Amino acid sequence: MASTIKELIDKKVNVVCVDGRNLIGILSGYDQLQNLVLTDCHERSYSSTSPVELVPLGVYIVRGDSLAILGELDVEEDAKRDLGGIRAEPVRPVLHTQS
Amino acid sequence: MLFFSFFKTLIGKTVAVELKNDVILTGTLHSCDQYLNLKLSSVTVVNGDKYPQLGCLKNAFVRGSVVRYVQIPSGEVNTELLEDATRKENAPKKREVAK
Questions:
Q1: Could you report the predicted ipTM of this complex, rounded to two decimals?
Q2: pTM surpassing 0.90?
Q3: Cβ–Cβ < 8 Å for A76, A12
Q4: Domain A9-85 has CATH 2.30.30.100
Q5: B29 reaches A (C-beta below 8 A)
C-alpha cells in the first residue's frame, strides 16, 4: 500500500517543517516528492514568552525536503483551543536531514 | 527493499516514531512506502504538553528522511528471519555458469 497523502487533499492540514515552523492551511496539491500546495495558509509562531502569533501567508508551496510532519487537523478540537493562552517553545529544527 | 517489506508487515501495529527533531509520535502504522515515509493513525505525541503545535492531529504523515528511530513491539519481530533475510540480500550474487 502506497503511503499517499491523497486522503488529505482539500482538508485542513498542519505542517511541521524541518526548521520547526508550523504552517496551517488547506492542502490543495502535492506530488510524489511531497511538495505541497497550501491555500489559505497561515503560520503559527510559538514562543515561550508571548502568545501564539498568527502570520497570514496566502498560497504557499512547501518543498518536499523541508517537510517533517504532515497531519490532518482536527478542526473542532482546534477551534476549542485558546491559542492566545498557549506558551510553548517552538518545535526544534531537524538536524542531519537528507532528502 | 527488505526494510520496506519489513515495515509492511508492521502495518496495523502500534509503533513509536522518534524524529530527528526529538519529537516522538506513537500511533498505529497505517501505511509505508519505499522511502519509508510512514503514515500513522490515532497519533499521540509523547510529552504532548510540550508540543501544542501537534495537539490536534488526527493522523500524521511522517517523511522518511526525518525519522531517527522506529520503536516496534518486540513480539512482532522475528529477528532470526530478519537476520537471514539481511544475509540473503547482502550475499554475493552467484554467477550463471556457462554451459
A1: 0.88
A2: no
A3: no
A4: yes
A5: no
Question: Between B20, B32, B53, which is nearest A3 by CB?
Answer: B32
Identify all chain B residues contacting A46, using CB atoms and an 8 Å cutoff: 52-53
Residue among B22, B58, B61 minimizing CB distance to A92: B22
Residue pointed to by grid coordinates 517537510:
A67
Rounded Cα distance, B64 and B66, in Å: 6
Tally of structural domains, chain B:
1
pLDDT, tens digit, 9 for 90 and up, residues B6-49: 999 999 999 999 999 999 999 999 999 999 999 999 999 998 88
Using a CB–CB cutoff of 8 Å, tell me whether B89 touches chain A: no
Alpha helices, H only, chain B: 2-9, 79-90
In a domain, B45, yes or no: yes
Q: What is the rounded CA–CA span in Å between residue A66 and residue A98?
A: 10
Full domain range(s) for residue B65: 2-85
